[in-house]
Amino acid sequence: MLELISEHACFKGVQQFYSHHSETIGLPMRFSVFLPPQAREGKVPALFCLAGLTCTEETFMIKAGAQRSAAQRGLILVTPDTSPRGANLPGEADSWDFGVGAGFYLDATEAPWNKHYRMYSYVLELYELIVRKFPVLPSSIGITGHSMGGHGALILALRNPNLFKTVSAFAPICAPSKCPWGIKAFTAYLGGEQESWQKYDASALMEQKHAPFPNGILIDQGLGDKFLPDQLFPHVFEAACQTAQQPLELRRHAEYDHGYYFISTFIEEHIRFHHQKLGEIVR
Q1: Alpha helices in the chain (DSSP H)
Q2: Active-site residue, selected from the candidate residues 83, 168, 225, 270
């Protein structure tokens, strides 16, 4: 059952925040939805927006500045939380890059995390809920994300191209099996057997495919991002795309860092990318 927490008029549409009980997580979860004015007249395309470490379902909606462009183009925006809340597991709140606010969009297999930390399956559960309860065109849904959420967007799209027809990302963690953030999370959530990590590693997944998104993938990366050298590895994903013959527009921007000032600068172009490509698919 959906509980509407709050709603706010926004660019002639409405920004809403919801709570519901998740069967996948086994706990209450929150998510946000922006409904453009066109959604009052009928079903429209949608874009899932996955946030990064320490964020919530509010962060993207408050900071990215996406609603204006989404309202102009008639695009629903959907943002889930970044982890379960209230699991009360030992150590889940000890680090900013693991546990609460850091679910890494995977399904944990290691105890005690495997009971609630199932964010990969939760996004798919939320997908089904959004299609049932909101005026969304099921054949016209894309996904984007930032940092950890960029990692989530890439793996969810690569593993579910029948559901997510377009994909983009801002400063994604492109090869989590190789970086400290990913190694820490994967070891705790999935165990030490690195073979099991590959299905949550976008670069490893891409190497096994052949042009899964022929209409292209868009990634923006700031060159002033302090996490670029050690955590993000866009060049690894770029090489994987070349192997897979996957069209990729990887735009590198001087001076821009890892935060939402960077995202807000280029979000309109991502909204336009998804709206255009989703429109082409529908036609």
Answers
A1: 59-63, 67-73, 119-133, 148-159, 180-190, 202-207, 234-244, 260-282
A2: 225
